[in-house]
Design a protein that fits this description.
The chain has about 750 residues and is α+β, with helices and mostly antiparallel strands. The chain is built from 24 helices and 28 strands. A hairpin with a 2-residue loop joins strand 23 and strand 24. Helix 8 crosses helix 10. The radius of gyration is 32 Å and the shape is elongated. The mean pLDDT is about 90.
Length: about 750
């Protein structure tokens, strides 16, 4: 406070309150300025506010509530002091500007914020807060009830405009995610709970340990009229910011609160999300303050802790949290686990041709980014599911899907902005000659269409396929998938199919085998003309096997010399997964004639595409219409655009290159340390680790791979196994995978391989 303003304040205190200020000391404040005033006998806090419409009524209301609490015998609150006219709020002029003033008695003691909330302090705080909320429930104050506070968790939507101040989309997604959860899972429940007055901000800087050892809450400026569970959620949020264990860190607080004022089950059910909402609102306000009020250090005081908490909270199973909170309140846990009835119903309802992952199947319930959550409350680091390319439940994808579905969901027989926008943007990701796109709704449908295009364009039937390749579950897809037709229960190779061998570390070792020469020999033995060659740039079901350097250049030239076309199956490798390349064919320096894409294109939404040249597309225009009921619908196009947005904005291709390279080096380190780890291979976040038996005879070790996969599952990490002998650990996580995630995976793999 400037010297002249201090003198004016001293004069005002003397005239209006009859208090002679011996000293004035600034205190921390968020939106108003606070000063510690010391008189000869007592200390006070002078609160100075910028004038605002309706503020006097709110400040008067707050003072009346504090006075009522004091009269009711509730101790440890900052008692308001009326001026000589009996008013709790004074409109004055300080430093030539109009301000509002309030005066409250100062509470001597130590702020918990000086040392952080300790575990031992949580139970007393829970009891104190429950008692306070019980007293506040008996008070009605229209001015506070009418207030719309940004800090009221029920008013989280008021913070949505502040999302624009969070510059890094990799951070912003967490707040967007919890805001979406609030819309779906919190709002409907809060609307059933009775509102009441609550403190609104029981954070560590507003909790004072008095000299007599009791607790006090100060600064009732965020008091609001909302369900009481919001008060407990706010206190729990700040307790968890300081806690090492994000599950047990708030349990004494919640248990003590419920022992005084028992919680309803519906209140416990929303606590996980309400806690996240408090941290989300806090980082939104901090981001805004950093731009609009950069000198206000108090507004940023818990910013970094809040961000760290949000990342960890999003990785924590909500059911685990709810069960822990129910335990703390003396309630039984939610129903969980997999019963015999679940498997029985599944087997009754569908075919056993559908498999289940792991020896003991997981009953999944929800997921977020690179984590999945089961019905028992366990969290899993997902290192396997490449379909949620930008992360499970990514809020921008979910938002695009829901908004588009609400506005329009129709097919390609109508002109729509969504179709034109998405197809233009998608084609811009390809070489110039690939200028036509067909949208369908699955990778299998895309393979079927790609083969139809090839047959239509060339007039030929013979197809060259890669050994161990997989291209779809339709009849035609299986016909070109060595992985299926030559596998267990497969129909065998058709006469029109030529197989191209791929490298096999166990069969070929490090030899310089001429794979192109082998392919030419196979083709020369066939009299029929070649329609197409189809292969993945890295053969996924073969065990993440990269094709030999220069191989595709030779094959593409050879196939085209025979009048055939070249198809690159990018269903697993596309959209930046390989890190250094957006499409897998780029790593080989070739341009295919037809590209098949799927899986990550919609982040789990069923969509796929075929991209080709104008000549091939023209040869398909025979007079028969091509129509896909769902391919290219407006919702799918909106989802596709959102996925591209996230890939670009969050720099996920760059992340795949950096984290994938780090992980591959770590996997190769395991190969150096363990004889049973034969080879680590792949690119970006599309990697494989081949496991082999050492004794009594060397060879692929499917049993070890299975044990490792199931051991990692027990450790909360999901991987798959693949390859001709199911002996390759397959690693293809969402592209938001981090170095910390990679370290966790490497450590778990080392332990599992070491234990055998």
């Amino acid at each position: 406070m400037p010297a002249t303003a201090q003198e004016q304040a001293a004069e005002i205190l003397r005239e209006r309150f009859g208090i002679v200020a011996r000293s004035t000391e600034p205190l921390e404040g968020y939106e108003n300025r606070n000063y510690l005033i010391a008189s000869r006998r007592e200390k006070y806090v002078l609160k100075v506010y910028h004038p605002d419409s309706g503020l006097i009524a709110q400040l008067d209301g707050e003072s009346r509530v504090l006075s009522e609490l004091s009269r009711s015998g509730f101790s440890g609150i900052p008692e308001p002091v009326a001026d000589s006219e009996g008013s709790f709020v004074s409109a004055v002029e300080i430093g030539g500007r109009q301000r509002f003033l309030r005066l409250v008695r100062f509470i001597e003691g130590a702020h918990l914020g000086n040392e952080g909330l300790s575990y031992d302090q949580l139970a007393p705080l829970g009891e104190y807060l429950a008692n306070l909320d019980q007293h506040l429930a008996r008070i009605r104050e229209p001015a506070i009830e009418a207030k719309k506070s940004r800090w009221d968790l029920a008013n989280w939507r008021l913070s949505v405009p502040d999302l624009r101040f969070i510059s890094d989309p990799r951070d912003r997604k967490y707040v967007e995610y919890f805001f979406l959860r609030a819309k779906e899972f919190v709002d409907p429940k809060l609307q059933t709970l009775e509102p009441q007055l609550i403190h609104g901000d029981p954070n560590e800087w507003n909790v004072v340990v008095r000299e007599d050892g009791g607790l006090s809450l100060i600064d009732f400026g965020d008091m609001c009229f909302t369900p009481r569970i919001c008060d407990l959620a706010i206190a729990a949020c700040y307790a968890l910011l300081f806690a090492k264990d994000k599950v047990s860190g708030a349990l004494p607080l919640i248990s003590a609160y419920s022992s005084v004022s028992p919680l309803q089950e519906i209140e416990i059910a929303v606590l996980y999300d309400l806690i996240a909402l408090r941290a989300s609102i806090s980082v939104c306000r901090s981001a805004r303050s950093r731009i609009e009020d950069p000198d206000n250090e108090y507004a940023l005081i818990s910013d970094q802790m809040a961000w760290s908490f949000l990342r960890k909270w999003a990785a924590t199973n909500p059911r685990q949290i709810e069960d822990a909170f129910r335990d703390a309140c003396g309630l039984s846990r939610l129903e969980s686990g997999i019963g015999t009835e679940d498997l029985k119903v599944r087997n009754i309802n569908t075919s056993r041709a559908l498999s289940l992952q792991f020896d003991e199947p997981i009953r999944m319930e929800s997921a977020a980014f690179q984590f999945m959550f089961d019905r028992e409350g366990k969290s899993y680091l997902d290192c396997y599911n490449n379909i949620p390319h930008v992360g499970h439940s990514h809020p921008r994808v979910v938002d695009a899907l829901s908004k588009s579905a609400l506005r329009l969901n129709t097919n390609t027989r109508y002109l729509t902005d969504e179709f034109n926008s998405y197809t233009t943007r998608l084609l811009n990701k390809f070489p110039e000659k690939l200028e036509k796109v067909f949208l369908v709704n699955s990778g299998s449908a895309a393979t079927d269409l790609a083969l139809r295009l090839a047959h239509s364009h060339t007039g030929k039937e013979t197809l060259i396929v890669a050994e161990h390749g997989y291209h779809g579950n339709t009849r035609e897809g299986i016909a070109v998938s060595h992985y299926k037709y030559a596998g267990k229960g497969g129909p065998g190779k058709q006469g029109r199919i030529i197989e191209a061998p791929i490298p096999n570390i166990l069969r070929d070792g490090d030899s310089e085998r001429d794979f192109f020469g082998d392919l030419k020999q196979c083709v020369q033995e066939c009299d029929a003309g070649i329609a197409a060659f189809i292969a993945e740039p890295i053969v996924g079901c073969g065990g993440q096997v990269p094709l030999p350097e220069g191989y595709l250049k030779q094959v593409y030239g050879f196939v085209r010399s025979l009048g055939g076309v070249c198809i690159s199956d990018e269903v697993q490798t596309g959209f930046g997964r390989l890190g250094d390349w957006f499409w897998g064919f780029e790593m080989h320096g070739v341009e295919p004639d037809i590209v098949v894409i799927g899986k990550p294109i919609g982040n789990g939404h069923p969509m796929a595409a075929v991209v080709t040249t104008a000549d091939i597309a023209r040869s398909f225009e025979t007079g028969m219409e091509f129509f896909s009921s769902f391919g290219g619908n407006t919702v799918s196009c909106a989802v596709g655009n959102a996925v591209l947005d996230v890939i670009e904005d969050e720099e996920l291709q760059k992340n795949a290159a950096e984290v994938g390279g780090y992980l591959l080096r770590g996997l190769r380190g395991l190969c150096d340390r363990f004889e049973s780890a034969a080879e680590a291979r792949g690119s970006g976040l599309f990697l494989g680790l081949e496991l082999v038996a050492v004794d009594p005879e060397p060879g692929p070790d499917s049993r070890l791979a299975s044990r490792v996969k199931n051991r990692l599952k027990d450790d909360g990490i999901l991987v798959g196994t693949d390859g001709p002998h199911d002996s390759v650990i397959k690693i293809k996580p969402p592209l938001c995978f981090t170095r910390e995630d990679a370290d966790r995976l490497l450590g778990a793999l080392e332990d599992a391989i070491s234990d055998g």
